[in-house]
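Example record

The entry below shows one chain as it appears in the dataset: sequence first, then structure tokens.
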Amino acid sequence: MKRARGLSKGVFTVLLSALIAFGLVVFPIRGHRAARGAPASSADKPTPAAPPGASPSARAAAGAAKASPSAAPSASAAAATPAPAKADATKGGEDDLTTLPLGTGLPLGIRVGVFYLDVKSFDDTKGEFVATTDVRLRWTDLRHRFPASEEHRGYREVRFGEADKKLETMWSPHLEIANRAEAPSFTMRRLRIFPNGEVELMTRTTARYKVAIDAARFPFDRQHLLLDLIVRDSDTDEVELAAQHEDVEFSRPARGLTIDGWTAGLVDLDLSEVAGWNGDRYGRLEAALDVDRDPKGALAPVFIPLVASLLIPLLAIWMNKSDEDGFEVEAFELANVVIGGLFSVIALSFAIYSAYGVIAGGDNTVTRLFGLNYVSLASALGVVVLFFRFKLPAKLFGPYVQAEMFRVILWALPVLSTATSIAFILAAKA
């Protein structure tokens, strides 16, 4: 009996020693692996607690992770995975209406028309005019299409400040008026959108503009009150300007438009291009209102004095008479008439050029008539000196030849002056 108990104690002692040895061997290995970065089981990882101030749903998720360790990895992975970012429609997306419309292809055609509502003033001396104009731009943007039944008028329309706000949310062409002298004193806009996507932008502006003046045909000249429209932000590969039949019909002066000293005519639309950087080309449209000068305004202050001054050298010749001894009137007296006429023409030129500065520096009817006056005065002075003073033809060819030559001069010089004057005026009027 005692032997059996001793045997059982020995067996128990051996088994206990084996278990302790097995534990000493196994547990250091697990610790070594963990120290070297081996992945631990999900049961060994502490479940993170919800941060202070977290939402109730976050606290519930943390509690569920503690209760169910197997579900914790999936919950934390879901929290760590960022949600897909929502597409920003305002930065070049399909719904971005501020980008260049591509639905109709490139280049996008911008149809332009210009209506001259009023011309408040036109100073041809400075080359400036002040006008109120309506510039109409029309293009197609299929992104703005809508059912025609939504609008009983057939289009959507916004005006004034609402139109400016609407334009900030959509694409529209930016046209620079190159010859505008200063910022406009008045601007108003009207925007219409049609069911088929056609957009119409009307801009009414009052501003001062600079124009070049061509006075070669003064006082029968025609000037052009010009608006020089240029697209600067898009080249002709993207945007091009155009003018169709309805745009030409829209481009006209208002009924009853009047300009002091001028008569309004038609509006011309001229399409061209301007050069840009690196060989780029930009669309350009010149809308010009043709105005004709009223010649009656220049008749009394300009042409009557000019024609009258042509009579001075003729009078210096007609006042003398040929006889057997030579001439009746002394050359000294007639020379004074010619010199007085010279100073009269100089004073007249100062007066006319001061009133009509546009004709002072070019080739026109007035400058030609002044030139004819100087030539006539020089011819008359030559007759006074050579015939009346020195009697040179009589000394060379005899008194008879001198008398005949003087008779020819009496009618030839007036005829030449008159014919040349008429030719200058007709050339300007033609």
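Notes for this example: The chain has two domains: 108-294, 297-429. The chain has a mean pLDDT of 83.
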